[in-house]
Amino acid sequence: MSTLLGLEGVSKNYGPNTVLKDVSFQIGKGEVVGLLGDNGAGKSTLVKIMSGVVSMSSGRYVWDGEEVNRVSRPETERRGVETIFQDSALVPTMSITRNIFAGREITNRFGFLKLRAMDAITTEILDSVVAIEGIRSAKQLVSSLSGGQAQAVAIARAVHFKRSLLILDEPTSALAVRATEALLNYLVQLKSEGVSSVLVTHNLHHAYKVCDRHIVMNHGRKILDTTREDTSVEELTAAVVEGAEGVKRFRQGKPLA
Amino acid sequence: MSVKEPPVVLEEPAPERRRLADSQPATTVDRLKDNLYYLRGRGALEISGVYLAIVIGFVVTSLVNPAGFAFLNSNNLSGVLSQNIPVLAILAIGAGVLMIAGEFDLSIGATIGLCGVVFIRTANSAGWPVAFAATVAVGIAVAVINGLIVVSTKIPSFIATLGMSFFWTGVSIYVNGNTPATFFPGVRTDTMVNLMAGNYGYFRSQLVWLVVVGIAAWFLLHRHRAGNKVFAVGGNAAAAAAVSIKPKAVRLQAFAFLGVMVGIASSLYVARTSGMQPGTTESYTLLAIAAAVVGGCSLTGGRGSVTGMVVGGALILTIENGLVLGNAPGFYVQLFLGVAIVIAAVFNKFMEGKAT
């Protein structure tokens, strides 16, 4: 499998606080990677760096074998990276349609919006992408949606625009069971289309079910990077809960402390 | 021979999900109803209703008692309303768009003073068309300087522009001196007066300016991608940045847009008054912001409409006009105006919750 995105020696400091320490990993084309770890492990920062929203303090961002010197959101957007952020990055005071097309509006050549065309596409993707109950119209304000519905809109947007890499930061936290199932199945389906995805989640069972590879973070460091064949839900649990010590102990066959 | 049991149904089949596409309006009438439904709670619709009720009230009173309440008198409609409303409404459009982007400009009044001085002095030396261009350019420059201070230092725009308000008044006194700027004889040509302050019976040319500026602003804000970005940045700047919108650039554009509006409004103002004394236009700052708030702009950004801003400005001045016509003593005008603005703001807050 050829590599789509490689991070090499990535560190991130916020003032005196080091959030990421020398993290390296690779995401293959069409691979589903699980990014796991406890709160404060640095997962969300890593997601923001991968999607170009936050710059790294040091390290290399290698896309398809070629280093990207100045990683920015327009740069990653051009390469087809789409992210669903944990704090569902929508504008509550705008309609669903305007949220989905914010910054990527369909316009005539003078920049005027083609609202009807955008409404039609929005309706279409809301119907096809994830099972969302209770949305009446693409014209609804996002502030009138429930948390799960808003999350579904964020997912629909990312899924609509993704071309090469889809990053999902805790996507299932606000979703109903059936919508979660649909989303996980969708990730597997993406593989056959050659689209890679990174799934950040607390739910190890979800991750284990769909991910080809698992990366476990702990206090800003990568402590485990393993394929599904080489690990188990139990080992992942030990790594997430107890860090590197937990992995060592698990491999020695000792039960959780 | 064993009895075959009927197969047990473990799970009910998932109900067919209602598709969004099937419930969309198909006919033109349905589409209009749908659009109207989604206008609720945005401010413009509600405040327009209130304004219509007030105007109808004034018209009826005026018809019943034309001598005591001369609302429909052409002197009132043309001389007072169509001269005052356009200036305030154009300022409100500028202030309101900036508020949607999540910023304030408290130096609007001071900038009008400076722009007015620039218009008169440039017109005296180079004629009014050059003066108009120079005034708009100065309006943009002032607003962009304010904007640069705000976006580069991250000081709340409230404080930054409050300080700059004194600065710009100072600049206009420095440029002009303490005596009012006035046009030299013959500078105020017939063409200029006809275009910028012409009397056409029941309305003045300022009203045409408002219509043109209002329609252009409406299309830019509500039907252009530039406006979409303003709403996105004001509603959730982090979300906007995550989709490659640059919040700082968009805020600067909103400041520049305000500058254009202040430039136009100042030109109309001095074309009518023929003079400008720096430091006398401060009240326009809060009037413009009040008009935007009355029209449904949110103080926290992300919410508002051009229709609301224009109607908000018109509402304030029409109420003021009614109070004057009804012979209310001077301080009552302020009193009622204050109450009306607060009620409108409370009303908007209430309607916000009804938005879908």
Automatic annotation (TrEMBL), chain A:
Transmembrane segments: none annotated. It holds the Pfam family ABC_tran. PROSITE patterns: ABC_TRANSPORTER_1, ABC_TRANSPORTER_2. It comes from the Bacteria. Residues 5-244 form the ABC transporter domain. Keywords: ATP-binding, Nucleotide-binding, Sugar transport, Transport. GO terms for molecular function: ATP binding; ATP hydrolysis activity. SUPFAM superfamilies: P-loop containing nucleoside triphosphate hydrolases. Coiled coil: none annotated. This is Simple sugar transport system ATP-binding protein. It comes from Kribbella antiqua.
UniProtKB/TrEMBL annotation, chain B:
Pfam families: BPD_transp_2. It is found in: Cell membrane. It is a multi-pass membrane protein. Keywords: Cell membrane, Membrane, Transmembrane, Transmembrane helix. The keyword rRNA-binding does not apply. GO terms for cellular component: plasma membrane. GO terms for molecular function: transmembrane transporter activity. Its main location: membrane. The chain crosses the membrane at residues 50-72, 84-101, 106-124, 130-151, 202-221, 254-271, 283-299, 331-351. It comes from the Bacteria. This is Ribose/xylose/arabinose/galactoside ABC-type transport system permease subunit. It comes from Kribbella antiqua.
